[in-house]
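Continuing from the previous page...

OK, I double-checked the sequence for LemA family protein against my notes and this is the correct one:
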Amino acid sequence: MKKGIIILLVVVGVLLLGAGSLYGAFKSRYNNMVYLDEGVKEKWSQVENVYQRRSDLIPNLVATVKGYASHEEDTFTKLAEARSKAGGTISISEEVLNDPALFKRFQEAQSSLSGALQRLMMVTESYPELKANDSFLSLQSQLEGTENRITVERKRFNETAKEYNFYIRAFPNNIFANMFGFKERPYFTAVEGADVAPTVDFGN
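Thanks. Re-ran it with the corrected sequence; updated structure tokens here:
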């Protein structure tokens, strides 16, 4: 009788130890997923910040250029339309990170805005007085820095998203990821000419 009780206690102890180990492994993997996912969201917020910074610079840029090239209305109109589509004041929820189609549209809108800015810069080449304007030179420096920062933050986002995506896809993490709704995050993909920051040389 005592021997049977001892065996039962041993079996129960082993099961409890096994359950404890399983719980520990489960908890560790879940917490790692949360940590990596928060990293992706943090990098996304940095991407938003630099795109917002660029959007905020555009009205001042247009106002300065209009002072010297007011008749370039078509260029200004296209830039305004592109800025509007890109979200004049960017307010993009995390829904974009959960929907590859929305993410793609966001990227396309920002690329369109980059193209419109490039066209505006080409227009300024015809106005030497504009290129000597102090306000214009200041905007040049700020816009160049912002475009470079966009490239950097997009790269950092992709690197963080890649680490997260690999972790949740690896076995057995993928089982836990599916159970708790952890989904892959989309990447910024290269578009034609995206290997370098958009040209914003004002012809100094």
